[in-house]
Amino acid sequence: MAHSGISILFEGQNFHRLLAGFGVTLRVAVIVLLIGGALGVVLGALRTLNRRWLQVLLRGYLEVFRIVPTVVLLFVVYYIVPQAFGLNLSGEAVAIVTFALWTAAEMSDIVRGALIAVPRHQLEAAEALGLDRTQQFRYVLLPQALPIALPGTINLATRIIKTTSLLLMISVMDIVNVGQTLVEANAHKHPAFAFWVYGTMFVMYYVLCAPLSWWAKHTEKKRLEVANG
Amino acid sequence: MDWSVIQSSLPQFAAAFWLTLWLSAVGIAGALVVGIAASLTQFFRLPGLHQLATGYIDVARNTPLLVQLFFIYYGLPGLGIKLSATASGLIGLVFLGGSYMAEAFTSGYNAIGRGQLESGAALGLTNGQLARYVVIPQGLAAAVPALAANVIFLIKETSIFTVIAIPELTNTALDLIGLYYRSSEYLFTLVVAYAIILIPLSWGLTTLERRVRYGTFGH
Question: What's the rounded Cα separation, in Å, for the pair A204 and A208?
């Protein structure tokens, strides 16, 4: 019976452990967003400069991260970094490095797109008014580029959260891994338990990502309304 | 890097390569069908169905494929629904991909001028005829870039099938590493295998986008 499974979810420490796993998932997602996001802003700004070699290099960086699946990148860092640099990284550190590099690549494209979407004459007008480079950036470029970059950035955040489900593969005790452990300990007695554990996991990811997606849609709609009058 | 290690693993990688292509092709075809159906019910606001499509897209896009696969492959047997790994993987990929394809089609339909639809309606076209002769031909052209991005995305997502032990490329590489501890060789082969699929495909899709754009604007 299905209901015999759900009660085990709240027995002893089970639900608490699942939440702790979710905490690990969240922590990794937040750190990745902060590090990867910051790096992505810098790389994106660099890509708007008129330096051919820099553009080729950073475009290549983006393409590598777009072609190779994130799972594969994760295992490349997991196996190669300890060998090549003699570093002994924890699974969580490996995941943060990999996901942050991937996030930076995606973020650089969002930032570049937003910066070049601001019409040239805006900057020329600012210069004509006597604004210096910092002022141009602060009062002209940033206020116009930010609304363009916002929906994509929020969507990237949901993609980061969803990507953290891969943590399981390098043995980090994230929510998926904890769930799997709980199922292995209980499923022989109550087969329906697996349904409830994986169902809970499903709901937890949804609860985290859906509001962000709605927010992204809302900001995009508002931006288009402003842009189209 | 030991080339002989790579060479002796090539038959396994070749089998995995074709399996990855087959899974991707079936999954993408299914996702396109689901995507067209879901987006059309939304576009014509078919009573009952369009709320269902909106809910489905919302759920599928906001949960990771890995969790979807765990739910289908390990969770559903608890309710007596047992599916093979391949069936679970394909259902997961179609479930996820259908929602992404639906969004791509919707953005394409939104690019169609209102006048086109009003003219169609004025001519007495039914919803089915509007879809067949007005919405899909014009919407499809506008949706091509987003559809192409989804195709690449879904092929990469097949790498997640490794968690339910489908012997596609990633799973094969990880299995070989587990057996022989030659991580550099097998990971290198793995990356090359994905590059062989994805680089020519992404060039092809870019060319297609360009041709469709000419088609749309009549150059």
Answer: 6
Tokens of A168: 């399981």
Query: What is the domain extent for residue A99?
Result: 2-227
Span of A68-72, B53-57, B139-143 with lowest mean pLDDT: B139-143
Written as six digits, the tokens of B192 are: 């090359």
CB pairs under 8 A between A and B: 113
Note whether A72 contacts B170, CB cutoff 8 Å: yes
Over residues A123-158, the pLDDT tens digits come to 899 999 999 988 988 899 989 999 999 999 999 999
Position A1, amino acid? M
Cβ atoms of B68 and B29 closer than 8 Å: no
CATH number of the domain residue A10 falls in: 1.10.3720.10
Cβ within 8 Å of residue B200, ≥6 positions away: none
For A12, what's the count of Cα atoms within 13 Å in the CB-facing half-sphere?
Answer: 7
- Contact partners, residue B179, CB within 8 Å, separation at least 6: none
Q: Is A194 on the interface with B (CB under 8 A)?
A: yes
Quick check: helix, strand or coil at residue A187? coil
CB A50 within 8 A of CB A115: no
Residue B219 has pLDDT above 50, yes or no: no
User: What pTM, to 2 d.p., does this model score?
Assistant: 0.91
Domains and CATH numbers, chain B: 3-217 (1.10.3720.10)
Number of domains in chain A: 1
Q: Interface of chain B against chain A, CB under 8 Å?
A: 58-59, 61-68, 70-71, 74-79, 152, 156-157, 159-160, 162-163, 170, 173-174, 177, 183-184, 187, 190-191, 194-195, 198-199, 202
Give the helix, strand, coil percentages of chain A, each rounded to 5. 85, 0, 15
Contact B58 A158 (CB under 8 A): no
Name the DSSP class of A6.
H
Q: Which two tokens stand for residue B163?
A: 């968690």
Cβ–Cβ gap A72/B194 under 8 Å? yes
